[in-house]
């Protein structure tokens, strides 16, 4: 697939009754769900998937270091998980008919190859599968799409401002490839932008909104107010300075 970024020249993608965490992988190289590094778990959530009651898993590790990240303590991919997948599987076996689905969040959940096996198991039990992602790994996202019912996709800025948010070079390309992929797949998607006033101007936000609507056909774009809870001290100080100046 040729992404719009390349074309525009701006930058040169009947349920079983018991859960088994030992399900056979589609191929011998795919990790099992047991290998997921889960950093945290919200057993009951009404805010992670619109109009759904879900259980939400926060997976360890992310390649980006976004300015406003409020989960920065779970970004290091070398840190092991603290929640066994079997505990999640046991809960799902008891909550059929009570929960609508499972949301995989992060960190950046698509970083973990075991996510495919986990999503497949969740689907096999008849639960919906939601995904929170920044689109950092479009190839892995593509492998997940057959098992995903809804995506909350973070698009952080217009392409020319992206690296200022993520603090990693070249981050716009995979993010917009992932957006294009999800839109073409026809999966229900909500695009979210956390407006970081230390980086983005009102003009930047307007440009992004127009780009998403006109070039990608995004109909559900939610602007989120940045919150300082859980962010780094560095960011809290920068935000306070910006607020005082504004």
Structure description:
There is one protein chain. By secondary structure, the chain is of the alpha/beta class. The chain has a single domain (28-245), classed as TIM Barrel (Alpha-Beta Barrel), CATH 3.20.20.70. It has eight helices and seven strands; from the N terminus they run H-E-E-H-E-H-E-H-E-H-H-E-H-E-H. The chain has helices at residues 4-8, 85-94, 115-124, 138-144, 162-166, 172-185, 202-216, 233-245, and strands spanning 38-45, 54-59, 101-105, 128-133, 150-154, 188-195, 221-225. Strands 1-2-3-4-5-6-7 form a seven-stranded mixed β-sheet. The N and C termini lie far apart (42 Å).
The biggest beta sheet is recorded as: 7 strands, mixed
Q: From the alpha-carbon coordinates, what is the Rg to the nearest angstrom?
A: 18 Å
The fold-level CATH name is: TIM Barrel
Order of helices and strands: HEEHEHEHEHHEHEH
Number of helical segments? 8
Q: Indicate the low-confidence ranges by residue numbers.
A: 1-27
Overall CATH architecture = Alpha-Beta Barrel
Number of separate strands:
7
Derived from helix and strand composition plus strand pairing, the structural class reads: alpha/beta
Q: What do we call the CATH homologous superfamily?
A: Aldolase class I
Q: Tally the structural domains.
A: 1
């Amino acid at each position: 697939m040729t992404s719009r970024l390349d074309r525009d020249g701006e930058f040169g993608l009947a349920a079983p009754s018991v859960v088994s965490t030992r399900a056979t992988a589609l191929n011998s190289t795919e990790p099992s769900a047991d290998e997921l590094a889960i950093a945290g778990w919200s057993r009951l959530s009404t805010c992670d998937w619109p109009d759904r009651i879900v259980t939400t898993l926060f997976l360890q590790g992310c390649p980006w270091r976004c300015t406003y990240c409020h989960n920065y303590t779970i970004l290091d991919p070398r840190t092991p998980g603290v929640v066994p997948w079997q505990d999640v599987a046991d809960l799902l076996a008891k909550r059929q008919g009570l929960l609508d689905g499972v949301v995989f969040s992060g960190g950046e959940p698509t970083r973990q190859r075991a996510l495919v096996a986990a999503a497949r198991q969740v689907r096999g039990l008849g639960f919906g599968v939601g995904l929170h992602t920044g689109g950092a790994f479009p190839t892995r996202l593509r492998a997940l799409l057959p098992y995903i019912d809804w995506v909350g996709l973070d698009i952080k800025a217009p392409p020319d401002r992206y690296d200022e948010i993520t603090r990693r070079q070249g981050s716009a390309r995979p993010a917009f490839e992932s957006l294009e992929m999800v839109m073409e797949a026809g999966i229900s998607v909500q695009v979210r932008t956390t407006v970081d006033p230390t980086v983005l101007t009102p003009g930047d936000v307007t440009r992004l909104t127009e780009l998403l609507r006109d070039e990608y056909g995004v109909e559900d774009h939610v602007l989120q107010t940045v919150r300082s809870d859980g962010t780094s001290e560095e960011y809290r100080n920068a935000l306070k300075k910006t607020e005082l100046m504004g």
